[in-house]
Amino acid sequence: MDGTAPLPNRSFAPFASEMDWRIVEWVVKDGIGHKSFDRLLDIPGVAGKLGLSYKNVAGLHKHIDSLQPRAGEWKIRSLQFKDHPEQDFVLRYREVIEAVKSLWGDPSLAEHLVYKPRKVFLDSKKLSRVYSEMWDGKWWQYTQKQLPKGATVAPLIIATDKTQLTQFSGSKQAYPACILLAYLPVDKMPKDSLTRHEYSGCYQCLFHNAMCHVLSPLILAGRKGVEMAMYPILASYVANYPEQCLITCSKSGTCPKCQVKAVNLGSQKPSPKQTQAWTLGVMQESQQSTSFTAQYFDACMAEEVLGYVYVPFWNELPFTDIHFSNGISSLSQISGTERKNMGKILLGCLIGSTMPKKAITAVRAILDFIYLAQYPTHNDNTLGYALNTWHNNNNSFLEIGIRDDFNIPKFHSLVHYVEMIQFFGATDNYNTEMFERLHIDFAKKAWRTSNKRDEFPQMTRWLSHQENIQSFNQELSWILEQQQLSVSPKPKAATTISSCIFLPKNPTAIGKSFASIQKSHNIPHFQEHLTCYLEMLKPGSTNADVEDSTTKPLPFDRLDLYYSFKFSPESLDDEKETEMQQKLFH
Known about the structure:
Residues 164-175, 310-330, 491-510 and 571-578 have low confidence and may be disordered. Helix content is 43%, strand content 9%. Strands 1-2-6 form a 3-stranded antiparallel beta sheet, with helices on one face. It has 5 domains: 9-69 and 465-485, no CATH class; 75-250 and 317-323 and 429-452, no CATH class; 251-316, no CATH class; 336-427; 488-585, no CATH class. A hairpin with a 7-residue loop joins strand 3 and strand 4 (129-131). It has helices spanning 18-29, 34-42, 46-50, 57-65, 96-104, 138-145, 196-215, 217-224, 241-248, 276-288, 293-302, 336-350, 357-372, 385-393, 395-399, 409-412, 417-424, 432-436, 438-448, 455-487, 514-520, 526-536, 543-548, 574-585; strands at residues 75-81, 84-93, 120-121, 129-131, 152-159, 182-183, 230-238, 378-379, 501-502, 512-513, 558-559, 561-562. It is mostly helical. The protein is globular and about 75 Å long. The protein is built from 24 helices and 12 strands.
């Protein structure tokens, strides 16, 4: 293991040795066929010479199942409608509190955990505030004040999205801080004796009932807390626009965050937020003023509320979704690379055209906003700049007759971005892109490993095996890291720091923590080395001062780290640009 002492075999229990464990990891991660692996172990002497503790795939799986589940055991619950008790809708889920505990106990995430909010500013006078992570946003600040002294917030981000299991695309790496909580019911229901509205309403009720059952433990935990004085609170719900309307009981074509009418979506005037009390009030008033289901539905729709469901739901959640489905292109689906390439050439194609200058300015503003919204760090100067330019110039499209209005939910949602970033940090914390990738790991890969008949039990078992292997590997890495730290020599005064280039602080760059630098660059006791180096730079510093400085705390805990720079014209093709970077760096 790179020159370090090997771990004792007891560290790999229930596996007999490191080789025993590595073979299990290879079989599970690479998807080795069960029959093929059984034939390998049937060869006389193979299992004995390798020192394996299992004789077939069944024994291998038994070892994996004996490991501590990452997020608890999978459970099954049947949901029924009162007027159709004969039909079961199966919900497969895990306890949300167990999932939260597993994340907090994951050693690979320890250096990323934040226990208290902070306000970050660009200047000493604290005039320009920075918004990057959720812990430096206003929501955490406000929520923290509601908790008892010594307690900490565990903000949860929930995401749901429909997916077709038979489709497959993408190649990004999923971040380990995401856990699949549930497979929501997808069973078909008979359309007999149901109108179109009733049929749609049944599915919406089914979704809300399933989500209430999965997330209901958060109500008591958020009010009373759990172990370690931790309060798991739902901070953000990530979904595309149709599901935003489903979750908030909003009429399609309206805003799921505020009470603005559909005919006023183009207005910049602020509207009251949608709340649970307001939505339920509309439903109750409609129910009391009508006698038939159709009348009740029409009364709710007149207030732009879907009256299908009458259950509590989570309110005032930050949604994010920045794609214009069929709005500016006939393409029904484009990749991220295609979208970026379109954005690079769109403005250039308009230069020299007969479009008014204000219209081109509006296009530039909306493109600016798309790029600005992707910033990992924001301050008061970046927020609102592009939106103001867009709103001041988009009336040019109305003047030349391209559009009659901008009462479009996607464009209206832009007015909520500034407040959303101020409350919850940069959008890369909760955008839809990061969760769409998880469909591949959590659903599509799992489905492909099944025999396509009674697939969900097979999918949950496959996912549990993947998670157990990952958790066990992380535990071994943590043990090895502790072993390295225990044998590493203490820093000396003359120690120099290498393999990193530190440049003056860039306020828009996100630095790396000392623990992250120490781990990724294999520099034991990095903070002590840095303290010694900085002490040496002080005028009149002596060797005694340098030696004593190792115990002094630093006024910062992060550094901006740069490996190299490249200045060249930006390529219009992301793939070619990546190839150029690889040639330059390697």
